[in-house]
Amino acid sequence: MATLAAAHRFPTAIAVIVANCVPIVGVLAFGWDLRSIMFVYWLETAVIVFYSVLKVVTVGGPITLLWMPGHLAFFGVFMSFHLMMILALGPTPPGGFFPPDVIRELFRRTWSAGIGLVVSHGISFVVNFLGNGEYRHTTVNEQIAAPWKRVLIMHATTFVGAWSVMLFEAPVGALVMLAVLKIVVDLHGHLRERRVNSEAESPRSAQVPATTIEGVLGLFGAFLVFCGVVLAAGSGGQVFRASRIRSQWPTVHAEVVDCRVREAVDRAPNVSYLVRCRFRYDVAGVQHVAAFSTHSTSDQETVAEMRRWVAQHRSGTMQPIHYDALAPERISLGELGETIDPPLVGQTLTAAGGFAGAGALLLVIARLRSRRSLARQAVA
């Protein structure tokens, strides 16, 4: 396989770098936030899966299309979990786990990056896989497993970076560094799939044994366990941020411009509620007007408290708020609003346990299947 030191031998690496620079332009020129960048990387998963199907069909012929529903189903589940985690990186919107308005807005904002990824992976497919004859030195099972290895490594790295960026309130420099980290990881993954000249002549029989369903289950299980660890760390990040708001964000008395309880009907027959308010306040002689929204909830006790709180905060009343001294337009009620916006640490830890438990189950299943396969081979 090629390494970063051999990048100059593969002109297609330029397309990888250019496509991954689009999020940097988005951050610097168009104000993309953390969730927008991570959504681009979510789109890349779909692009990788699309080209993996083309590679499998190229190697194994049209008959392999019969295997594709199971292959795509695994990725569908993975991408659903992944999208839920990405949406959790921003304000919790009403509309269920996959609020259509938010997803449409993310598509509208990041479509150019998606096209860049389609072109970049397409160039690699045509030039390397077809033009350089890489399809002659691989197997169907290897191509089924290949996107899992690359996608899981890529997203494990970017999620660690994303939670780090959240911890530091997503400054522009940190977002750019996250995009640079993604370029390095993606370039490394791209080159690992390439063969240097001495390897290109290796017969197919010299390849590593094909990865079976046990390997895919093991990789997916390991990723879910990793997601559980990241969510648990995110709970610690929430506690840290709340402590930082209480201790480091100044407090100012703000005038309520408007404040109301809003509701949204999900696709299921559930109704969620949130409080959205706008406040007017002065910081160093400069007047600011900023909006604050709570998390959405369907808990009736919390909703009743929301209604009482809003009834006491009509337009023109005063309410102490916290603001970020480095960016005064960013505000929070902090501990002043815990009755209407309770911390989500418990829910996050529950989700972490769910991810980790599901991942551990898949790892156990993969291990048991592997042992049975080895036992059958020993008998044979």
Largest sheet: 5 strands, antiparallel
Quaternary organisation: single chain
Helix fraction by DSSP (H/I, runs of at least 4): 55-70%
Quick one: how many beta strands? 5
On the 0 to 100 scale, the average pLDDT is 78
Strand content: 5-15%
Low-confidence stretches: 196-211
Work out the helix count: 10
The number of domains is: 2
- End-to-end separation in angstroms reads 33 Å
CA radius of gyration is 24 Å
Describe the structure.
There is one protein chain. By secondary structure, the chain is an alpha+beta fold. The protein has two domains: 4-203, no CATH class; 249-342, OB fold (Dihydrolipoamide Acetyltransferase, E2P) (Beta Barrel), CATH 2.40.50. The chain contains ten helices and five strands; from the N terminus they run ααααααααβββαββα. It has helices at residues 12-30, 34-60, 68-87, 100-131, 140-167, 172-192, 197-200, 213-248, 300-311, 345-379, and strands at residues 251-265, 271-283, 286-293, 318-324, 327-332. It has a five-stranded antiparallel beta sheet. Helix 1 (12-30) runs antiparallel to helix 6, helix 5 (140-167) packs parallel to helix 8 (213-248) and helix 8 (213-248) packs antiparallel against helix 10 (345-379). The longest helix is centred in the middle third of the chain and has 36 residues, at 213-248. The radius of gyration is 24 Å and the shape is elongated. The two termini are 33 Å apart. The model is unreliable at 196-211 (pLDDT under 50).
